[in-house]
Amino acid sequence: MKTIRYFCTGGYTETAGIVSFLHKINPNIIWKRDFPSVDKPGPKITTVQPSRIHRGVTGQRLVHEMLDRLKNPAFKLKDSYDGILLIDDADCRFSTVEDFHSWVSGLAKEVQCVVGWDVPFYALLASPEVEAWFLSDWTNSFEEQYPGTFAFQLKRKFITSFGSYPWTNIESFGGHHVNGSCSTKLSAKIEEVFENPLFMKQFINVMKECNTKLEYSKRVHGAVMLQHIDPQKVDRNCRKFFSVAFRQLSTL
Predict the structure, then answer these.
(1) Which of 111, 149, 203, 240 is deepest in the core (most CB within 10 A)?
(2) Alpha-carbon Rg for the chain in angstroms
(3) What is the Cα 233 distance to its own chain's centre?
(4) What is d(CA 10, CA 8) in angstroms, rounded to the nearest whole number?
(5) Are the C-beta atoms of residues 58 and 29 closer than 8 Å to each other?
(6) What is the rounded CA–CA span in Å between residue 233 and residue 137?
(7) Which residues pair with 50 in a beta bridge?
(8) Which positions of the chain have pLDDT values less than 50?
(9) pLDDT of residue 45
(10) Which helix (H) or strand (E) covers residue 105, if one does?
(11) What per-residue confidence (pLDDT) applies to 235?
(12) d(CA 16, CA 47)
């Protein structure tokens, strides 16, 4: 079996759910996390969480963490692993797909320079952020997590809330790059729908019947969704920034 060592953005969703997702991409790979470190689960915590110092680490900070950790002599041992994987949000950093591929190629050279050998490098990016993967596989994400009536109306609300981009272009839901991030925060848009009193008012009876509060939490719902979604369905709707690495990793 091949071994891939990965560095992942320090978000609650990814830290708790990415291992299951990676095993679905390729169950024949040994996936070893090198970043972030995690807090030891307490008696009342059911999912792992990123350590305090690593929470929210993304973008260039994540790249810096990866390159710094790759200086460890262990990474110079070619026989100990078969590739390096970076998992992050795209956050509208790339104006074109060509810019993304150029970035991956440049970073691959930096990685190989640090470790001292031509290690295969992969970049698996969620564009604009991991919630795009959930929207790509609605059946195993929102539809599975919430009551049927609510899930149906929720999708209709999302469609009208994400601007002029079609549902087949989910990776563009972040809009343009403005002030170092996306002009539209996808996760914030999702949270806004759940926090919209006029929209949520119509589901009071649903909440009473299910004895549950209808809400969205990256720590809870996001982590579970990432564990349950099908990467092949994500591949169908996220061709720009997800598909290349997905297909490379799935065929190893």
Answers:
(1) 111
(2) 19
(3) 14
(4) 6
(5) no
(6) 6
(7) 38
(8) 42-45
(9) 45
(10) helix 97-115
(11) 96
(12) 6
Integer CA distances (angstroms), 161 to 29, 125, 167, in order: 38, 23, 11
**67, 34 contact by CB (below 8 A):** no
In terms of Cβ atoms closer than 10 Å to its own Cβ (0-12, 13-18, 19+), residue 76 is middle
Strands (E), the chain: 2-8, 29-35, 38-39, 49-50, 83-89, 121-126, 177-178, 181-182
Average per-residue pLDDT for the chain? 91
Q: What are the structure tokens assigned to 217, written together? A: 């939490």
Q: Kindly give, in sequence order, each residue whose CB lies less than 8 Å from that of residue 98, ignoring residues fewer than 6 positions away.
A: none
At residue 34, the pLDDT reads 95
- Domains of the chain (ranges, CATH numbers): 2-130+231-250 (3.40.50), 132-228 (no CATH)
Count the neighbouring beta carbons within 10 Å of the beta carbon of residue 26: 18
Strands 2-8 and 29-35: parallel
User: DSSP H helical segments within 4-56, as ranges?
Assistant: 12-25
